[in-house]
Design brief:
OB fold (Dihydrolipoamide Acetyltransferase, E2P), five-stranded antiparallel beta sheet, 388 residues, six-stranded mixed beta sheet, Rossmann fold, alpha+beta
């Protein structure tokens, strides 16, 4: 496998900056996901790594070797595309074997490798069929097998399961994850689907408008977003973001709702803002806790039963927030509900810069946050969906 390094890599199309200068390292054996809405630059970044798109500036290194201007065939990478890209006149076996035949491999080695990857992906019984006789999921398995058969230094996957239906995507997602765990393959994976990103990635690169917004583990980008874009984009619904006025350790939210700031955050807010000023309070739906004595009061705007839980849509004087509650809760519309917020997973943002405010964590505080990080990642995987 290989380490991939991008050093101040950028791409311009005329005056349009498709990817602004970025530094990124994909470690040996890591599964890195490039996530963002359409047009954010994630596929362009992947194509620059592959050599299919020339860089405007910067360097690309694979295992320390500068491949910035190397031909795609000289980079020892394999590509998996969204729309299969199979040869329609060849059988599945011939499609999978083609890269090895092009490299002049012996018939014995080709037979062995095709058999190995076909067994791994459960398609040995389909090898005699042509693409038109295969389902969408099986076509994607053949496309994946064609990439795997070469044993390259790295795999690049451009929304490889985006064209499949929901059931097939779930199955293929599990198969790609299993492949990564067994092969320990360095992989760069492009998607706009946050479920895929959260489920597959060791780390996620969140992009918008050609700019890297945040790089972190699934739990970090969900629980501790770097800015308002990441907070909104990750999660379904996204993070609740409510603007209030901060003064004397209290944020006054809409609807005459005073929210006492957790002590550690109070120090951070005073350091960043002084004694008073506007601040955005951010909290995930699972951070809300419906209680009879909570400091915040809102009216029920709507309710949604999601099977294992209920989502309450609550109006804070016209600002709607979303709270994840027990499945048995069923309040009539207009009911006044009291709730509190879990202080471990509340975040604060500067309304001017849109950047997250930070706590000066020490080792003990980091350790104390670990349970919240684990809860956040579990919730992201069970409660998230596609944005963008």
């Amino acid at each position: 496998m290989a380490t991939i390094e991008l050093r101040q890599v950028e791409k311009k199309f005329g005056d349009l900056h498709a990817v602004k200068p970025m530094d990124l390292t994909v470690h040996d054996g890591e599964f890195m996901v490039l996530l963002g809405p359409s047009g954010c630059g994630k596929t362009t970044t992947l194509r620059m790594i592959s050599g299919l798109e020339a860089v405007t500036g910067g360097q690309i290194l694979i295992d320390g070797r500068d491949v910035t201007w190397a031909h795609p065939s000289d980079r020892d990478i394999a590509l998996v595309f969204q729309f299969f890209a199979l040869y329609p006149h060849l059988s599945a076996w011939q499609n999978i074997a083609f890269p090895l035949q092009a490299e002049g491999e012996s018939r014995v080695n080709i037979e062995k490798r095709v058999s190995e990857v076909a067994r791994m992906l459960g398609i040995k019984h389909l090898l005699h069929l042509r693409p038109k006789a295969l389902s969408g999921g099986d076509k994607q398995r053949v496309g994946l097998a064609r990439a795997l058969v070469r044993r390259p230094a790295a795999f690049l996957m451009d929304e490889p399961i985006g064209a499949l239906d929901a059931d097939a995507r779930e199955t293929m997602r599990a198969e790609i994850k299993q492949f990564h765990l067994t092969q320990n393959a360095t992989t760069v994976y492009v998607t706009h689907d946050q479920i895929e990103a959260m489920a597959l990635g060791d780390r996620i690169v969140v992009m918008s408008m050609g700019v890297v917004q945040q790089v972190g583990t699934p739990a970090e980008v969900y629980y501790d977003p770097a800015n308002l874009f990441v907070a909104r984009f990750i999660g379904s619904p996204g993070m609740n973001l409510v603007t209030g006025g901060y003064a004397d350790g209290v944020v006054h939210l809409p609807g005459s709702n005073p929210y006492p700031v957790p002590p550690a955050w109070n120090t951070a807010l005073q350091r960043e803002m002084g004694s008073e000023g506007d601040v955005i309070v951010g909290f995930r739906p699972e951070a809300g806790r419906v209680t009879g004595t909570g400091p915040l009061v809102a009216e029920v705007y709507a309710t949604e039963l999601h099977g294992a839980y209920t989502v309450l849509h609550l109006s804070l004087n016209g600002t709607v927030v979303h709270i994840r509650a027990d499945r048995g809760i069923d309040y009539p519309i207009g009911t006044a509900v009291r709730f509190d917020l879990d202080p471990e997973i509340v975040r604060f943002f500067d309304p001017q810069t849109e950047a997250a405010l930070r706590l000066p964590f020490d080792g003990a505080q980091d350790k104390a946050q670990e349970p919240a990080l684990r809860r956040a990642q579990d919730t992201a995987l069970t409660g998230g969906s596609t944005n963008g």
